Amino acid sequence: IRLKFLNDTEEVAVVRPEDTVGRLKSKYFPGQENQMKFIYRGQLLQDQGRTLRSLHITDNCVIHCHRSRSATTAATVLPDPATTAPAASGLPLGAGNLLVPTVMVVLGVVWYFHFNYRQLFTAPATVSLIGVTILFSFLAFGMY
């Protein structure tokens, strides 16, 4: 079979139909079995005990290989969200977190002026205000 990597390089693997996915990983990637992910016909080969014959992998088939971070490395780099205490100030302040409330306040102020100073708003301005409000509503509710 052919092992194809993300950088379009290929390696020929000599295997028997009775070999398992786990044996293929240990034979060609010793010490990196947990980091390697095999994909055949769009399916991730997760069951290490399945034989190549049971997966219908025959002569000259291509298995796509992806080397990922090890599970232990990912666990040390990424904190567990269940055990991580929230910051004292809650959400971190940033432009993304303040955008929705800011637009809501601006729309509220414009609607206030629209109701109290109708003479300043033409029909196209009113239609535009309604359109912007509806668009923002879809975006805000879609995010949350």
From TrEMBL:
It is a multi-pass membrane protein. InterPro entries: TMUB1/2 (IPR040352), Ubiquitin-like_dom (IPR000626), Ubiquitin-like_domsf (IPR029071). One of its GO terms (cellular component) is membrane. Residues 1-64 form the Ubiquitin-like domain. Keywords: Membrane, Transmembrane, Transmembrane helix. Pfam families: ubiquitin. It is found in: Membrane. The keyword Transmembrane applies. GO terms for biological process: ERAD pathway. The keyword Transmembrane applies. It comes from the Eukaryota. The chain crosses the membrane at residues 98-115, 121-141. PANTHER family: PROTEIN C7ORF21 (PTHR14557), TRANSMEMBRANE AND UBIQUITIN-LIKE DOMAIN-CONTAINING PROTEIN 2 (PTHR14557:SF4). This is TMUB2 protein. It comes from Rynchops niger.
